[in-house]
Write a structure and sequence with these properties.
Elements lengths: L1 E2 L6 E2 L21 H18 L3 H31 L5 H20 L4 H23 L4 H26 L5 H27 L6 H22 L6 H4 L3
Antiparallel strand pairs: 1-2
Helix pairs in contact: 2-3, 3-4, 4-5, 5-6, 6-7
Amino acid sequence: MSYCQQCGVETDDNANFCSLCGAPISNENSIEPDEITAQIRERKALSSYQKLTRVQRWKIFWEIAGMIIIAGILISLTINLAGDHALTWSKFVIAVGLTLFVNITLISFLNRRIFLLFLLSFFTSAAFIAILDVILGISGIITSLGIPLLLAAYLIVLAFVLIERKTRQKGLNLIAYAILAMGILSICTDGIITIYSKGFLKVGWSLTVMVSAILIAALLLYVHHRLKRVTDLKRFFHI
């Protein structure tokens, strides 16, 4: 007796097609009923997930991430209180965990409203930097240096996301844009640190990084231009 590999129904030995779903039956590749049942369950589970909307998938991601973060916070808090009988190092874990959870929440529910997402995420991260400054008690050093660096990073990432969304032909050009963004971020980082420490703008090592980024990005953009018909990296690299 043979079984249909598509739906698992029992078929006649001399049948060429399944009487239920019409799939072709190959006796050479017949498998055991238990294996068929496992394959059907796997196929049904996959199809059930694929039927979920984008919002539902993001909600599942948010719930799983939230449970992991909250569990990590509670475990750290319990260990800290049990060992030191006071809040010491766990304050950093709580601050990082809450900031991460808020940002995941924003990404999960505001991923289509890109400007509002970046604005709220920036203020959340800036608040974390301010809280970290208070916890360490170092007179605003982290806030004075961290918030300008954070603002530069957010603006660069926002620009990259907007370019990515407006780019029709996606491939090596996105890698080139990302490398250029890292080069620009290095210049911003170098300049902000110099202004904070010396009181004037001066860039040094970041120029080398930027020149290297420009050369690599130019090479990638040239290759992308020559391979316009191959818009998918998976196809290009035979993945």
